[in-house]
Specification:
Rossmann fold; 7-stranded parallel β-sheet; 8 helices; 7 strands
């Protein structure tokens, strides 16, 4: 019960269909198990409702909200939904990201660049902007943004995705320092190679590979036991950062990557 008595929002609480669990759904389930009351936000309400049903089955409390975080009005509305439902906003968990259409710098289209930057970075900014005033008034709160080790590691074929994730890291730092005096903590998690539906299903189709072949290829790139992480690894790191155990931690960008970002050369 590390989040007992706390209320929060998980943005991107649904997931891409697949064999495993996604980062947003795993985080929502874990937060609920640890006592939090939740607002589950997703562009596809049905996907959020699937997550809510899993939480309800375990006796947790969650309400769903259909929203697009690239619209400031939607962000303000889901923050209001949280304070209306639970009376406060203790944490905001931002877990939205896309990469489809990305390409090397010389090849990426203007349309793909604009879409990825709008969804990954602008959306994160708008979500944080909506939550911060409530947290400042409370003199407390935690924000965790899910970035990627692509922000700091070479990722062939990516341009806008890398730039958006570097931007998220810097956004977290700026928010952390400008809100520290109000007791609001802002941290960033950089997942490495994860066995999630978003990572596996789309890539396998795009490259015309079987899931098993793709998983084996990705596993080889991870130093820690040669095995990708799962959404639960990201969720547990997030739980720690949102909990009171991390009350003196703000402004960090934490790799959760099996040592991949520590490798040089």
């Amino acid at each position: 019960m590390r989040l007992k008595g706390k209320a929060g929002i998980v943005v991107g609480a649904g997931q891409t269909p697949g064999e495993t669990i996604g980062n947003g759904r795993a985080a929502a389930l874990l937060f609920a198990r640890e006592g939090a009351k939740l607002i589950l936000v997703d562009r596809d309400l049905k996907l959020a409702e699937e997550t809510a049903a899993l939480i309800a089955k375990e006796g947790g409390a969650a309400k769903c909200f259909e929203g697009d975080w690239t619209r400031a009005a939607d962000c303000k509305a889901y923050v209001k939904a949280c304070t209306d439902a639970w009376g406060r906003l203790d944490f905001l968990h931002n877990n939205v990201g896309i990469g489809a259409g990305d390409a090397p710098p010389a090849q990426i289209t203007e349309e793909a660049y604009d879409r990825i930057m709008r969804v990954n970075l602008k959306g994160c900014l708008l979500s944080c902007q909506a939550a911060v005033p409530v947290m400042r008034e409370q003199q407390s709160g935690s924000i965790v943004n899910i970035s990627s080790i692509a922000a700091i590691a070479y990722a062939p074929g990516l341009t806008a995705y890398k730039l958006s994730k570097i931007g998220m890291n810097m956004l977290g730092q700026q928010l952390a320092l400008s809100n520290a005096k109000y007791g609001v903590r802002v941290n960033t998690i950089m997942p490495g190679l994860m066995d999630t539906p978003m990572a596996i299903e789309g890539t396998a189709r795009a490259r015309n590979l079987s899931r098993d072949v793709l998983r084996a290829e990705r596993d080889k790139r991870v130093p820690l036991k040669g095995k990708m992480g799962t959404a639960w690894d990201v969720a547990h790191a997030s739980l720690f950062l949102h909990s009171d155990e991390a009350k003196f931690i703000t402004g960090v960008a934490l790799p959760v990557d099996g040592g991949q970002s520590a490798r040089v050369g």
